[in-house]
Design goal:
Blueprint lengths: L5 H17 L17 H20 L19 H17 L19 H23 L7 H19 L14 H8 L9
Helix pairs in contact: 1-3, 1-4, 2-3, 2-4, 4-5, 5-6
Length: 194
């Protein structure tokens, strides 16, 4: 990712999450995921909560009404609609950010970041959880090598301090494609299956 194409990466990552959630089958909501302690519903709740947190940081509006790191596993609304609405609000918030803004608020412990990095962090969250949900439900991976290369640049800037919070696991050894490299850096196993 270059510092000039962060909007495209964010849009593609949001689309990956929306498309993946819309494809979850009726019997897929309780399936295990690469996030070992969470099922599909919980990962959706976490991903939505994270996107709301980014929107809140940008707009000063309310944050999620639940702890994204302690998802209940119960949704009383249509998940695809919830994700679409949340991502629409996120996109609107990001539309108000100048391309070259130096101090964009984030919900991360690191605080404000340059626009490309803040948006990249938001994109990373959406894209990696889209992958989690896709592999958990047997869908095709929404991550492309091009997306993964841009997201890896972001991950290398922000992930290390977040590992101590449990947001990412330790790096998994191994090589592979740009997607595999990104996933391994984030503590995931690209070969994971249900």
């Amino acid at each position: 990712m270059t510092e000039n194409n962060w909007r495209e990466l964010l849009e593609r990552s949001h689309q990956a999450l929306a498309t993946t959630v819309a494809a979850i089958p009726d019997d897929g909501w309780k399936l295990p995921t690469p996030c070992a302690e969470w099922n599909v519903t919980q990962v959706v709740q976490h991903a939505v909560g994270d996107q709301i947190a980014y929107t809140s940081a940008l707009t000063g509006g309310p944050g999620p009404g639940w702890n994204p790191f302690a998802p209940s596993g119960t949704l009383d609304v249509d998940a695809a609609d919830l994700v679409r609405q949340t991502l629409s609000e996120s996109a609107a918030a990001w539309a108000g950010v100048d391309d070259d803004a130096a101090d964009v608020p984030t919900p991360l412990p690191q605080g404000p970041m340059p626009a490309w990095l803040a948006a990249g962090a938001c994109a990373l969250d959406a894209a990696v959880h889209a992958w989690d949900l896709a592999v958990a439900t047997g869908s095709a991976s929404p991550l492309t090598d091009e997306m993964a290369a841009g997201l890896l640049r972001v991950a290398e800037e922000i992930v290390e301090p977040l590992r101590s919070y449990g947001a990412y696991g330790p790096v998994v050894d191994g090589g592979g494609s740009p997607v595999d490299t990104l996933l391994r850096y984030l503590g995931r196993r690209p070969e994971w299956t249900v």
